[in-house]
Amino acid sequence: MKIVFATVLAVFLLTGFSSCKFKMASQTEIVTALIKSRDWKGAYKGLLPGAGGEGIKVQITLNTDKTYQVSYQYMDRDHDLFTSSGKFDMDKNGIITIDNGTFSIYYVIGENTLTQLDAEKKPITGELADKYVLKKQHDAAKICDLPSQEQGQCKREKECVLK
After folding, report:
1. pTM tops 0.90, yes or no
2. Does 18 map to a domain?
3. Which of 34, 58, 134, 163 could hold 44 in an S-S bridge, CB 3.0 to 4.6 Å?
4. Which domain holds residue 67?
């Protein structure tokens, strides 16, 4: 009797669970959902590798109206702060193009990340690949920690004053 019960139970479990199909979301589905939800907007920070220096502190703020503000500061130079702002383009794959008139920089949206791509819009590989991933900031005050002449906090949702 125990053998019959165990066999019936095994058959039931196998047939019952074989009809359940678990589907993992593809990267394209995740990116599409992020784009539609506008979850990509916000400030992203990181420390990019610098040629021969300590690195470059970067902050990029993306706004829902497809405008951006970006600030770069070389860690080994206290007062060299470079900023730019303008409009960015985003394609259906979540690749953002920031063109400042001199050159273009490409990023791909991830879950709470913004990853810089190479000139062919491909992921940067090698030992320093993880250094090109900017992390989304979730602080409500949106206070920037790059040095500047101005001190303060955000005056408007899309304007971050450097601190």
Report:
1. no
2. no
3. 134
4. 26-163
Distance CA 58, CA 79 (A): 14
Query: Could you tell me if residue 1 is inside a domain?
Result: no
Is the Cα dihedral 83, 156, 43, 41 positive or negative?
A: negative
Residue indicated by tokens 């879950």: 111
Residue 160 dihedral angles phi and psi, to the nearest 5°: -110, 120
Position 159, amino acid = E
CA distance 15 to 24: 21
Find all residues with CB under 8 Å of 117, minimum gap 6, and list them: 95, 106, 107, 108, 123, 124
Alpha-carbon span 61 to 8, nearest angstrom: 60
Q: What is the DSSP letter of 92?
A: T
Name the E strands within the chain.
42-48, 56-62, 67-74, 81-90, 95-99, 104-110, 113-117, 133-136
81 within 8 A of 72, measured Cβ to Cβ? yes
Q: What's the rounded Cα separation, in Å, for the pair 32 and 151?
A: 37
The CATH number given to whatever domain includes residue 81 is 2.40.128.640
Residue type, 50: G
**Domain-located, residue 7:** no
pLDDT digits (tens, 9 = 90+) for 55-87: 899 999 999 999 999 998 988 776 678 899 999
